[in-house]
Amino acid sequence: MAVSSSCNPQLLLSHKFPETTYTYTERDVAVYALGVGACGRNAVDTDELKYAYHENGQQFIKVLPTFSALFSLESLPDGVDLPGLTFDPRLLLHGQQYIEVHKPLPSKATIQNKVSLAGLHDKGKAVILEIETRSYEKESGELLSMNRATVFLRGAGGFSDPSQPFTYSNYPANQASAMKIPESVPFAVFEDCTQSSQALLYRLSGDYNPLHSDPMFAKLAGFSRPILHGLCTLGFAVRAIIKCICKGDPDMIKNISGRFLLHVYPGETLVTEMWLKGLRVIYQVKAKERNRAVLLGYVHLHRLASSL
Ligand SMILES: CCCCCCC[C@@H](O)CC(=O)SCCNC(=O)CCNC(=O)[C@H](O)C(C)(C)COP(=O)(O)OP(=O)(O)OC[C@H]1O[C@@H](n2cnc3c(N)ncnc32)[C@H](O)[C@@H]1OP(=O)(O)O
């Protein structure tokens, strides 16, 4: 049954999101790492075993910088159920993700999330919502990360005058991920297979959207079968960059931006192409079997690996 949509921008923009608290442990960190394919090709990969196991104890395991994107979801206990907005939840897609890494994440922590609406755009065929989450370590009060998640609500647009469509954002335009792929040959290319059960494993990190697990729900959303979480694809891409460009050091990552161009089916092979421009890595991920680009973005580094 079709769900009618509506959007009241004044009501939405005046909404005050409650602060939320989220505790994760080393187990969550390891389950996440496996969900984004760490050690998927080689269980003793020296670059990646550290995300799932440490010989001196789990308190020493490393956390992938994309783990903090989970805070976006955890900070919204009711999902995108917001005053002033109705839409068909089956038509929601993740459009973009921007992550600022302020400190490497500890292997376990309690996080306090402060959430706000950073953007709202009427695209006619869709509404775009940008939700910003600042995540602080409860114990020290230090800012660990900032995430800006963009959700693309198909069928929910058209609430404003088409000659002057409503648009609002509260951050600098240079943090948006629109960019061009260089014409040169990539600096590095990394190929990785997702498993047909990849989304079933990834969802255990907290995104239980049935779009990724329920065949009937996926069909009603317009897909032949359940699709992969966008943040899972992003996790594969950033892992590839850490491996090929950061020589296995996740702490080199300063910020990450990605736009989801097309859905990925679990089981597809992801090919990440990387171009190094100073301290910026421009990357593109293709689904090899369809030869289609599925994700495009950039990663800023603190420094370059000495062995590059
Ligand atoms: C707080 C945490 C919340 C997170 C919740 C996440 C929950 C998850 O469980 C959900 C998921 O993981 S879904 C899976 C991952 N995402 C996807 O697979 C989407 C892939 N992308 C698409 O299908 C299309 O790009 C599509 C459909 C997105 C757009 O394609 P088109 O309809 O063809 O759009 P187009 O005509 O090209 O552009 C229209 C305007 O929209 C802008 N735009 C396009 N793609 C965008 C994208 N991916 N993100 C943001 N904006 C986007 C365009 O710029 C255009 O605007 P303008 O006219 O102003 O240029």
From TrEMBL:
<dbReference type="GO" id="GO:0044594">
    <property type="term" value="F:17-beta-hydroxysteroid dehydrogenase (NAD+) activity"/>
</dbReference>
<feature type="domain" description="Peroxisomal multifunctional enzyme type 2-like N-terminal">
    <location>
        <begin position="22"/>
        <end position="155"/>
    </location>
</feature>
<dbReference type="InterPro" id="IPR029069">
    <property type="entry name" value="HotDog_dom_sf"/>
</dbReference>
<dbReference type="InterPro" id="IPR002539">
    <property type="entry name" value="MaoC-like_dom"/>
</dbReference>
<dbReference type="InterPro" id="IPR054357">
    <property type="entry name" value="MFE-2_N"/>
</dbReference>
<dbReference type="GO" id="GO:0003857">
    <property type="term" value="F:(3S)-3-hydroxyacyl-CoA dehydrogenase (NAD+) activity"/>
</dbReference>
<dbReference type="GO" id="GO:0005777">
    <property type="term" value="C:peroxisome"/>
</dbReference>
<feature type="domain" description="MaoC-like">
    <location>
        <begin position="194"/>
        <end position="291"/>
    </location>
</feature>
<protein>
    <submittedName>
        <fullName>Enoyl-CoA hydratase 2, peroxisomal</fullName>
    </submittedName>
</protein>
<dbReference type="Pfam" id="PF22622">
    <property type="entry name" value="MFE-2_hydrat-2_N"/>
</dbReference>
<dbReference type="GO" id="GO:0004300">
    <property type="term" value="F:enoyl-CoA hydratase activity"/>
</dbReference>
<dbReference type="Pfam" id="PF01575">
    <property type="entry name" value="MaoC_dehydratas"/>
</dbReference>
<dbReference type="GO" id="GO:0006635">
    <property type="term" value="P:fatty acid beta-oxidation"/>
</dbReference>
